[in-house]
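I hope you will forgive my troubling you with a question about protein structure. The matter concerns a single protein, recorded as an amino acid sequence and a row of backbone structure tokens. Please examine both parts with care and let me know of anything in them that strikes you as inconsistent. Thank you for your consideration; the sequence and its tokens are set out here:
***
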Amino acid sequence: MDVRLNEEQMMIRQTVRDLARSRIAPRAAEIDRTGEFPWDVVDLFRQHDLFALPFPPEHGGLSGSALTLNVAIEELAKVCATSALILAVQALGAYPVMIAGTDEQKQRLLPDLAAGKKLAAYALSEPGAGSDPAGMVTRAERHGDEYVITGSKIWITDGGVADTITVFAKTDPAARSKGVSAFVLEDAQQLKGFQASTIHGKLGIRGSNTAELQLDEVVVPAANLLGEEGDGFRIAMRVLDRSRPGVAAQALGIAQGALDYAVGYARERKQFGKSIGEFQGIQFMLADMEAQTAAARAMVYWASQLIDDHSPEVTHHAAIAKLLAGDAAMKVTTDAVQILGGYGYVNEYPVERMMRDAKITQIYEGTNQIQRVVIARDLLRA
């Protein structure tokens, strides 16, 4: 397991790091406090071509490399998990088209996403179908050259701001997972019968737009079906294989940001006449935090490289990456709050926000319990 960034990847990492520290870090607390979607960050990403990172050059992108993308997500998440999620979800929403789209669909849809002219979203989860997406009840019925979609989706990141949304619906309700199909909604917010309601009161990632979608006989051209009818579940699982290391990269960045802050605090904070970093109890905590973060990074980079190599082992290692990084983020941020003591418990300092943000990385894109199921099934199957 040896992943080394090439010169271009290191340059991109430094560019994103500088941008994150100078332009996004000063905004992070306000984004969290107001809970408003940060359109200024979207504009910043557009200006600096960050939205182009998930896409190959033939579709207007700069890279298309999962490793390059996830290194950028990590750097953004060190200062603001909400901002990192904007880039991660642009990739997530575009992956179904990249994986299953026709040449015509790719040429029509991807360049605007790569330029950031349009935002993307991925609508799979439903109120009664979270960890069991095959149990969805949203329906898509064909009428000539169109499909009519009726149902609801929930917990859809950027669902209320995205222009291009991939929606999964049952075209054959009796067929369970084999009856799921995938459709692209263009200019989604303007479609008749489409309504997005923003979900408020979240523990973390408060500036991220999280929405419940209502689809009341939304008409979609048959040309916007991805693959064939019944291919949707397979597409969704392939997308999650690619996107889970992105969530893991977000978790990794949160952990590293909290660790960096805790180390700086431990150097400066004085108790009993010396810095608290001189006490062995604090040193052991910091050492464990570093070990957990380093292990998560190794796994995130490895899973990302396997995606770039088109390895058949991606599913297994993507699940491990998300499991390790999500759990590390939660543990490291909790320990960072402990090291800061009372100061860690107030929003004047960033570690309490990082702890709140970390929790979601154990939940979305498949809970960490689901990752354990995926990993165990793989082992037993082998």
User: Anything to note?
Assistant: The longest strand covers residues 146-157. The two ends are 20 Å apart (CA to CA). The chain is about 50% helix and 15% strand. The beta strands are 120-123, 139-143, 146-157, 164-170, 180-185, 194-198, 210-221, 225-226, 270-271, 274-275.
